[in-house]
Design a protein that fits this description.
Chain B: Pfam families: SAF. Chain B: InterPro entries: SAF, SAF_UxaA/GarD, UxaA_altronate/galactarate_dh. Chain B: Keywords: Hydrolase, Lyase. Chain B: Residues 15-90 form the SAF domain. Chain B: This is UxaA family hydrolase. The structure holds 2 protein chains of 2 kinds. Chain A is an alpha/beta fold. Helix content of chain A is 38%, strand content 17%. Chain A is built from 14 helices and 14 strands. Chain A has helices at 30-39, 56-71, 90-98, 115-134, 163-176, 193-197, 203-222, 234-238, 244-251, 284-293, 323-328, 338-341, 347-362, 368-371, and strands spanning 3-8, 14-15, 19-24, 43-44, 75-82, 104-108, 139-142, 147-152, 180-183, 260-264, 274-278, 298-303, 316-320, 335-336. In chain A, the strands form 3 sheets. Chain A has a 7-stranded parallel beta sheet with strand order 10-11-9-8-12-13-14, sandwiched between helices. Chain A has a 4-stranded parallel beta sheet with strand order 4-3-5-6, with helices on both faces. Chain B has a 4-stranded antiparallel beta sheet, with no helix packed on it. Chain B has a 3-stranded antiparallel beta sheet with strand order 6-7-9, with no helix packed on it. By secondary structure, chain B is mainly beta. In chain B, 0% of the residues lie in helices and 34% in strands. Chain B has a single domain (7-90), classed as Roll (Archaeosine Trna-guanine Transglycosylase, Chain: A, domain 4), CATH 2.30.130. The chains are: A alpha/beta, B mainly beta.
């Protein structure tokens, strides 16, 4: 227990996958990037609507997210693909990713004579990069080198009783092995902030918990809306959740019981080991993207209603809160924590089972989302585009 | 056969319990035990899997507790055994709709 087979990167970090990432820095390059992934096995990419006409905090956040995804240790090398005229310049992003020491190349549609020439150029570079990547050997690594993201989506009333507390057990086990567990979903901490703040390592971190959660709540208040029109979602409500506070108390169970070391920005790499919290929205794909940009190599995703979600870069282990949904959605769900509800297994034993699965997945076992090529990307945006 | 129904109440101070088996029909008598406390409840509504019912009477405006924490307030008086959900419980947080703009 506590070891896995990973890929050591030039910056010392360890990957659990060996992807070549085609990173489109702008919407206009996403289709060409996707076409390269169809030509060259071993490459991954994603579709998005960002990278241009963003200013201030959104500019910074998008830039940080792109860099973080490229720098994620699950990525062997990156081809940064731009259009040419966009705000988020491919060359600047490539320069930041290159600081990790991994192979990074830039292709640009306006500079390479259009879509077909760019695809040809990109595919040629990608093919070589994939072959170089394939020569890498896995080595035995310690769980202390893992950053594990935690997430819940499509929650039901069982989430806070089975899968989330079981992930809490895992979170504690990761921390006790010297690794890092990320709690996220600021929206879904509204109403549970006092429980988290009480576990902060110092007053500064505790104050930041209240600030970040207050800022999220204030967005709803400033807009003059009832936050329940978006969260809990109709599916959450059908599953028995009545209010955001109720959902939050269940969601916070994922954080286990260890002290909160720091609260980091969206897409930021943790500076401390142990339990950390990332400021993200509750939106599944946006928070998943933020955690992977923050360096998470593996993500645990609990669901009561079921979900197909995955990442192009990090394996996402999906855990059902109840056996009925697990049976109905076996295509998508990896593990079942519904046994806790039935009294067949304890929260602790399911936690140990999830922990063992992290070891298997980190060593190469594919998750359902990977097998189905569920390559989702969602970026948290704060303001408008211009 | 009420013993076939699974119901969980997290903390003795909670006002609600959650149904964790197939739905329990209205009229069923349920004994809910939490630590050393037992609540005898006659269900006024059919309660679906994952949904909550009041284990004690709750007054309009009163905080509703689950996990020993506040999950919202009652928008009307709720009897023991009634379904507690969005029709009679309102969240108190993120309520921009309740802010009066000057």
């Amino acid at each position: 227990m506590g070891k896995f087979w990973g890929y050591r990167r030039p910056d010392g970090r360890v990957g659990v996958r060996n992807h070549v990432l085609i990173l489109p820095t702008i919407t206009c390059a996403t289709q060409a990037a996707k076409q390269i992934t169809e030509l060259v096995q071993g490459t991954v990419s994603f579709i998005h609507q960002h990278g241009c006409a963003q200013v201030g905090v959104d500019y910074e956040q998008t830039f940080r997210t792109y860099v973080g995804l490229g720098a994620n240790p699950n990525v062997y090398g990156v081809i940064v693909m731009g259009l040419g005229c966009e705000t988020h310049q491919a060359r600047s992003i490539a320069g930041e990713i290159a600081k990790t020491g991994k192979p990074v190349e830039v292709v640009s549609i306006q500079d390479h004579g259009g879509t077909l020439m760019t695809i040809a150029q990109g595919a040629k570079i990608a093919a070589q990069m994939v072959q170089d990547a394939s020569a890498m050997m896995r080595e035995l690594c310690d769980f202390s080198e893992l950053i594990v993201g935690t997430e819940c989506g499509g929650s039901d009333a069982c989430s806070g009783l089975s899968a989330n507390p079981a992930v809490g057990v895992v979170s504690d086990m990761i921390v006790d092995h010297g690794g890092t567990a990320i709690l996220a979903e600021t929206t879904e901490l509204i109403g549970a902030e006092h429980l988290l703040a009480n576990r902060a390592v110092d007053d500064k971190v505790a104050k930041r918990v209240y600030e970040v959660i207050q800022a999220m709540e204030n967005r709803a208040i400033l807009m003059g809306v009832d936050i329940r029109t978006g969260n809990p979602s109709p599916g959450n409500i059908k599953g028995g959740l009545s209010s955001l506070e109720e959902k939050s108390l269940g969601a916070a169970a994922k954080a286990g019981s260890r002290p909160l070391q720091e609260l980091i920005d969206y897409g930021q790499v943790p500076t401390k080991k142990g339990l950390v919290s990332m400021d993200t929205p509750g939106h599944d794909i946006e928070q998943l993207t933020g955690m992977v940009a923050g360096g998470a190599q593996v993500v645990l995703f609990t669901s009561g209603r079921g979900t197909p979600t995955g990442s192009p870069i990090a394996p996402v282990i999906k855990i059902a809160t109840n056996s009925g949904m697990f049976e109905r959605m076996r295509d998508n769900m990896d593990l079942n924590a519904g046994t806790i509800i039935e009294g067949v297994e304890t929260i602790d034993s399911v936690g140990k089972r999830i922990f063992a699965e992290i070891g298997s997945v980190a060593s190469g076992k594919l998750t359902k989302a990977e097998i189905l090529k569920q390559h989702d990307f969602g970026l948290w945006r704060i303001g408008p585009t211009f | 056969m009420e013993s076939t129904y699974r119901v969980v109440m997290m903390k003795p101070i909670d006002k609600v319990a959650v149904v964790l088996s197939n739905s329990i029909p209205a009229g069923t008598h349920v004994a809910v035990t939490c630590q050393e406390h037992t609540f005898e409840v006659n269900l006024k509504d059919t309660i679906e899997f994952g949904h909550k019912f009041a284990v004690v009477p709750i007054q309009k405006g009163e905080d509703i507790l689950k996990y020993g924490e506040v999950i919202g307030a009652a928008v009307r008086d709720i009897d023991a055994g009634e379904h507690v959900h969005v029709h009679n419980l309102e969240g108190k947080r993120g309520r921009g709709d309740k802010v009066v703009n000057g």
